[in-house]
Design a protein that fits this description.
- The chain is built from 14 helices and no strands.
- The chain has one domain.
- Helix 1 packs across helix 4, helix 1 packs across helix 12 and helix 4 runs antiparallel to helix 12.
- With about 300 residues, the protein is an all-alpha fold.
């Protein structure tokens, strides 16, 4: 990135906005899934995002031209689309089995999987600071689930199934992210996302129940609107943050997403002590979430450490 184009304050604010939106998202999804299935929720999110991006790109005459792309690039685009579609779907599906704190904590594995993918696919180095970050992520997960390890040891319960589904969501996101790294040489991030949203909406179409939207309450309509706008605003802030700030610093700030999830649910419990969709984390579990965030941030900041190394 050109240093002249950097704006640290704006980049940090946009990154923090993205982290907050991604952190609050599972809380809203958990409520919405009581009235609408995961496929339909995700389909509406992709449909709205695709329509808005279509208008945006068409107005700028910047729609992606896949016809002139090679077969390899087109195959990568479709695979990336299926990866992000899988991530959205499986993350939403997991909330049928676990609460928002758990899903947001486990999805932090994307940082670890992305690093491992870079090591094995792109032959990137696995440096000492990244090893420390990996250790903190694993230790954080153990602490986060310290009082549920026995339950998770058995696969015949909802919580274990939910955790496994989140792990699948993390894997599918990693596939998307690793492919986008190569696709950015052919298309802009907005063009890639537009194609992904269109393909995902088409893939999910046979499995959705659009009529379910007419059975929502006013509060649930608000939640659905928030989830749809979250897709656009969060990724928009994320893309602009990358234009204004180092990618490693942006990724480090995004590691704070679980903090927003936990804080949001703590506030909800204060307002409504009988609120059911929360794990009411112990101090050790919160400490585990902090270790997860620190480990993710260390891994993300590794390029900065390399630059500053004498």
């Amino acid at each position: 990135m050109n240093k002249k184009n950097q704006n640290s304050r704006a980049g940090a604010l946009l990154s923090l906005t993205t982290a907050a939106l991604w952190g609050v998202l599972p809380v809203a999804l958990k409520e919405l899934l009581a009235a609408m299935d995961a496929s339909t929720v995700v389909w509406f999110r992709f449909l709205v995002a695709a329509l808005v991006m279509l208008i945006w790109l068409a107005a700028r005459k910047n729609l992606p031209n896949l016809i002139s792309a090679s077969v390899r690039v087109r195959l990568m685009m479709v695979t990336a689309a299926l990866g992000l579609c899988g991530n959205y779907y499986f993350f939403s599906l997991s909330l049928n089995y676990v609460n928002a704190e758990t899903s947001e904590a486990v999805i932090q594995l994307t940082t670890l999987f992305l690093i491992l993918g870079g090591v094995f696919i792109y032959k990137e180095p696995f440096a000492g600071m990244q090893k420390i970050g990996t250790g903190l992520i694993l230790a954080g997960l153990l602490l986060f689930f310290h009082d549920r390890l026995e339950v998770l040891g058995s696969l015949d319960n909802a919580e274990s199934l939910g955790v496994l589904v989140v792990v699948v969501a993390a894997i599918t996101w990693t596939i998307y992210a690793l492919l986008q790294k190569q696709l950015l040489g052919e298309f802009s991030s907005v063009q890639i996302l537009f194609f992904i949203y269109v393909v995902s909406a088409l893939v999910l179409l046979p499995f959705v129940t659009p009529a379910a939207v007419f059975e929502l309450t006013n509060f649930q309509y608000t939640l659905l609107a928030f989830c749809c706008l979250n897709t656009l605003i969060a990724y928009g802030c994320f893309a602009e943050a990358l234009n204004l700030w180092d990618a490693s610093k942006v990724s480090a700030v995004l590691a704070l997403a679980p903090l927003f999830t936990i804080a949001t649910l703590k506030v909800i419990v204060i307002i409504n002590p009988d609120y059911a969709f929360t794990d009411r984390l112990s101090i050790l579990s919160v400490l585990g979430a902090v270790l997860l965030m620190v480990g993710s941030a260390l891994i993300a900041l590794m390029p900065i450490f390399r630059q500053n190394r004498p």
